[in-house]
Amino acid sequence: MNNSKFKALWDFIFLSGGEMIGKIAGLVAFAYLARTLGPKAYGSVEVALALLSILTLLVQFGFGPIGAREISRNPESTNLYARWIPGSRLVLALIAVPVMWGIAEIMSHSPETKELIFITAFALFGIVWNQSWLFQGMEKMSVVSLNQALKMVFYFVCVVLFVKSPDDLIKVAYIEVASAAVMAFYFLVIQRGLSVPIGIRINPQIILKMVKKAFAVGASNVIWALNQYLPTLIVALMVGGAATAWMGSAHRIVNAIITFSMVYHFNLFPAVSYRLHHSALAFNKIVWPSFRVTAWAGIFIALVISLFAEWVSFIVFGENFVEAALPMAVLIWSLPLTLLNGHARWALIAKDKQRYVCYAQLAGTVTTVVVGLLLIPSYGPSGGAITMVFCSGMVWLVAHMYASKLVARIPSIDIAWRPFFIALMILFLVQFFGDDSMIASIVGIVLYLGLAPFVDKTLIGDMHALSKIKNDKHYEIAGKKQVIKE
Question: Is the pTM of this model over 0.85?
Fold first, then answer.
């Protein structure tokens, strides 16, 4: 049976399936670590992994998309990029590892945390051989998806086998390094099986050339990571102890949910890009319904998590982590902000104005530092959660400003205030009647859903319109249906 016409579907199924397995295995692994290590030791794990996440994106530095693009255009260059990219990443890893050690010396007074970070840093060398870009360019997405599942399942199994008490904290670092090594080994075995040479080529001229090509993507990714993890690191630096665990565990749950924002906008991007290419009117016909629907949906999810944050913290991480409920209830409001600011960010990308997205992310980083230093010393992890919400809001403000000026008129708070006001009133009433009342919370959720179509009478119509926006390769442009030919 020839499945070539369904290749895109199968690639999506493989990728999403691997991502789903990886996320479930990861969440269960970290829930186990939280329950086994206790808040203080688990906080150290979150600090180490926050640093690793930021520096991982520095080592990768956007080389992957560049390599995938080049070998998909010119397959004859595969063997060259298969050595150039690991060579470039190795140079960055040799810089990033000492940087991670230096940060550990500055921000940690605990010998155990320093040792944990010191060992975890070696996982960056495994990132050198993350060849997912290679198989992406070769259109072998099943290879990439299997790696996503393999790494986290391996991590979960090792955590359960070897981490039995807080005394096993350092073992978590060795498991992280081993997981990175397994990922690298997996890619290299597949690479060898496809007769792509394994090697490293370090050439200063090539490295500089690749850094220039990847700078916009690499810088944006690093800045995004700073926005995600700086609040946790500031909490660890200025408060420390169990507070880091409250912030880290809340962020781990919320960050998994926010992944939906990226998936949503990534899926809608082809239709957005095509319409924007034709006319601002066509663009408006997709962005306005999308903005309204995501405002109501994002605020609904934020409302649900806010009402049940204590239950989520207890069920996932255990009774010792109920203090993470308040940071989680605050932090989840970065979800609707991220969903909404995505319209401006992706519109800028569609218009080939990526550098302005980078400016918006950078404004978010500055906001994170300023607000974090002001709030976190007094309010701890709750201050860190507020900081991330402010960061998301600033990214929205700056991206909206640039998109309105350079792309087209973008919807703003004038659409989102109705669902936000209803959610705010429900939260107030539930607190008034008792925040531990399950019945009050359920009634509040039902009330939100029931009021939505009456308060915003265009919501149902926009939901219907949005559902028809993307239909294979047929897009309605300025009232007329046009077909994109193969």
Answer: no
